[in-house]
Amino acid sequence: MSKPKALVTGQNGQLGNELKVLSAKYPQFDYVFTDVKELDITDKAQVDAFFDEHKPVVCINAAAYTAVDKAETDKELALKINAEAVGNLASNCANIQAKFIHVSTDYVFDGTATTPYKEDHPVSPVNFYGESKLKGEEIALEKLPSTVIIRTSWVYSFFGNNFVKTMLRLMKERETLSVINDQFGSPTYAADLAQAIMQLATQENVAGGIYHFSNEGIISWFDFAVAIRDLAGLHCEVKPTDTSGYPTPAKRPGYSAMSKEKIKSVGIGLKDWKDSLKQCIDLLQQ
């Protein structure tokens, strides 16, 4: 007897790769992993035909346009991938009653809060990337109210390009490094996020709506960099600097820590950010 299918988009990204690694532990599905070569999710006709052929019982959308600064000028493509494509997936899931899990971002918030953002806190993105991701959330919930949206933050992994890998590289090349100390949030190890997604994918009665997920702890990018250096046993001097010294095309929220009580209430456990960081650095150094 053939097993039910799980469709995972964005297989070449950090999260997609982690989901691939983890899929072996969830053998109840036959997995269809895609990236733009196998399935262009911005092409509605292609998505319709793909769902027609494979009829997945669950679709995990790990595909996204994530170049935050580039999104300021590349608006059309950011919107296509982060919003329109999400609609294509959501409406197809609605048609065949498939579970839809979509990944969003802390950048839907403006960063003016001083305590962790709850799921129902008013949204107000300060950059176009955040706007495009917010639009994706809205379209998904409109087309399929049972969509499970997971907002996450500061994602890093063994795979792909990310802050952790950049810091490890620069710290080996340089004697000193300046890192921003006035933006606060929570790192997320993509392997932990993948685990949470698979738990939600296999749980029976998870209510649709928005959930927040990251590792535990609120830090600055400077704190993050210092921890990376110490855990990797490197000797670069890390200096704190503020955002004004590092102008970027896209504005960043100054505080984007999120409350995770809701996702904990459905049985998802969270790890401390430093424990997960150590795990990733150990892997990278092997």
Describe the 3D structure.
The chain has 286 residues and is α/β, with parallel strands linked by helices. The chain has a single domain (5-161, 187-214, 256-271), classed as 3-Layer(aba) Sandwich (Rossmann fold). Helix content is 39%, strand content 16%. The protein has 9 helices and 12 strands. It has helices at residues 14-22, 44-54, 75-95, 128-143, 163-173, 190-202, 221-232, 261-265, 273-285; strands at 5-9, 30-33, 58-61, 99-105, 148-152, 155-156, 176-180, 184-185, 188-189, 209-212, 219-220, 237-241. The chain has a 6-stranded parallel beta sheet with strand order 2-1-3-4-5-10, with helices on both faces. It has a two-stranded parallel ribbon with strand order 6-9. It starts with a strand and ends with a helix.
Write the layout of secondary structure elements.
Elements: E1 5-9, H1 14-22, E2 30-33, H2 44-54, E3 58-61, H3 75-95, E4 99-105, H4 128-143, E5 148-152, E6 155-156, H5 163-173, E7 176-180, E8 184-185, E9 188-189, H6 190-202, E10 209-212, E11 219-220, H7 221-232, E12 237-241, H8 261-265, H9 273-285
Parallel strand pairs: 1-2, 1-3, 3-4, 4-5, 5-10, 6-9, 7-12
Antiparallel strand pairs: 8-11
Helix pairs in contact: 1-6, 2-3, 3-4, 5-7, 7-9
